[in-house]
Every structure is written in C-alpha cells, then in structure tokens.
Prior knowledge:
Keywords: Signal. It comes from Corticibacter populi. Pfam families: CAP (PF00188). This is CAP domain-containing protein. This protein is of the alpha+beta class. It has two domains: about 55-215, CATH 3.40.33.10; about 215-354, Immunoglobulin-like, CATH 2.60.40.3780. About 25% of the residues lie in helices and about 25% in strands. It contains eight helices and 14 strands. The strands form three sheets. Strands 1-4-6-5-3-2 form a six-stranded mixed β-sheet, sandwiched between helices. The longest helix has 16 residues, at about 95-110. The chain is globular. The relative contact order is 0.16.
Amino acid sequence: MQTVQSNARLNQTRWALSILLAAVLAACGGGGGSDDSGNGGNTGGNDGGTTEPVDDGTNQNDDYAAGSRQKSAFDAINVARKAAGLEPLLQNTRIDAAAQAHAQYQTINDTTGHAEVQGNNGFTGNNSFYRVQAQGYEPAETNESISYTQYPNITGAQLAVEWALASVYHRSSFLSSHYINVGIGDSDYPASSTLGYSHNIVVNFARPSNQSAPFIPSENAGKGSVIWPVDGASNVPLALSNETPRPVPDVAYPGHPISFAVDRSLSNGGTNTLTVNNFILSCNGVPVITRLLTSANDANMSEGALANWAFLVPVEWLPANSTCSVVFKGSATSGATYDKTWSFQTGSTTYAGT
C-alpha cells in the first residue's frame, strides 16, 4: 500500500486548495471542495497483500436516516448518476465514519479544507485516503468534496450536489465511473465560529483495492460516455459555479459548463485519453463562444488525472429559457470514436440552487 499512499500524498497537495469559497456561492450560502487522493492510474488489484474483510461496511441499500443531510446528499448524487447513465454509488459505513470525523474536525477547530494538522483535536489523517484507511477500508483511491453552507438541514445538502454538478473540477468526482462507494458526514459550526457557515457536508468517494474500476455502462464495453447536462435536461442553470482553482480565471461571468467524458482507464491498466475533434455549443440556433478545457491545455485537469474529460465553458452566462444544442466528435486511446449530438433547456436561475 505504500505506493498508493505516496501517490495519495502527491494528489492531496494538488487538490487541497480546491475549495469553493468564491463570493457568489458564499453569498448564496455555500461552497465546496475536491481532494483527489490515490493512484489515479490504478485499475484495481490488491497491491499491498491486505485482504479486504467480508464485511467491508458496504450497504447494498443505504441506511441514512430519513430527512437527514446525508440522505439528501446521497439521493441527489445517485439521481444525477442515474440520469448520466452511471451505476449508483453504494453507501459504506466505514467511509461514512471517515467523512464524519473530518466534518467534526473542521467544526471543532473552526476551519475549512481537506487537510488536517496532526496534534489538533479530532485529527484522523492528513487527507481523505488516510482517513478512510484509518476506518478499516483499504482504498485503491479516494476523492473528497466538501461544502459549506448557511442553508438549513437537507436543503444545503441537496444544493451542495447541485453546485458541484455546475462546476468543472468537482463535477468530475460526482460523475466518475471509477468510484464504487461513498460516505457522507456533516457537522454544525459553533455559534462562536468566525467563518460565516452553519454547517459543512463532507462527501468521500472511494474504490476498494480489491476491485477494478468499473467501465461506464454501454452496449459496447469500454466505449461508454458520460455527458452533462444530459440530453433533454431542463432548468439548467446559466452560470458556472465558483470554484478554486478557477477553470477560466480571465472570464468574469463564465457560463454553465458542458462536459463529455469516457472511461478513465484502459483494460490493460493504461490511461484512456480523450481527443476532441469538434465540440460546439449553440443556443437558440446562435453559436456560443466557449473555451475548451482538456488535459492537454489545462494544468489542473492534467494533474487531476482528468485526461478522459473535456469541458466547454461559455465565456458568458447561457441565455435564460433557451434551447441549447451540443455537437461532440472525438476519439480515445482505447480506439473508440464518438459522434454525439444532444440538447437541453436552460432555466431562469443564474447559479445552481439559488
């Protein structure tokens, strides 16, 4: 496991500052972050000799309490994944424990972020990989997303997922085919907190070391794809959620991103890189000026193991109550080719959940 842990430490450094705390989301009552920990190219297999116990904490049917923040976030995640054609994530109580411990670490120490400082109250590990492992779950890789909100109870949990799906780097975690399990924790900040949030919501994604990464469901194995917004989606928000690092830092009011993704790994364990030949967005028949982001031109995507993703980010908010059409043509290292056209409807809401 040492190799995976070393890679986890490197990835933690890259993503530790991916905290959605920009002014607009903070004003709307929230934010979030993403921490990619683990061996991004690992397609499974037990590399440390540790045998996963029969009871690894996975529940085929979740047991989150009705009306809880965890239940709200869990359901919202899997509703989105189902719409995208992905398998649902399975609750894992050990990952729940890791997420809950980190949620409480932040409120105990009145702080935010993915990292923990050894010696502080509530310390359980300096990144999500170690925290999940400390609870008895042996991960091949983990990823963590954190939201901070002023919205009460389940409202903030559902909006946290909506904010992530309206972003670039965070969307890739929620709609990844690479993860199998999820754990969710939350904790209330004390009244004396100086941060301005009522509570946080921590979502940990993981895949156990004894399971290979699943492929995107498809009639042709290894040739599946994930698009977002999905074909026929309605009430799509107009703007990109504020996130750090900012995907297009020189654009003042970027629009809702469009994405196309394929399987991240090849059957032989190599990286499956997506090549874009054509990626066009138009709304009401008028071409939309966009920025194309791939691992070839975006350092954050390259470092975050997102070679299998491509994003179109409009340089302005999308027009409200409009029909938008997308054309994508490309290929992947796997040899698969893609030629897809789809459409969606925007709503009147600028930012997700507002």
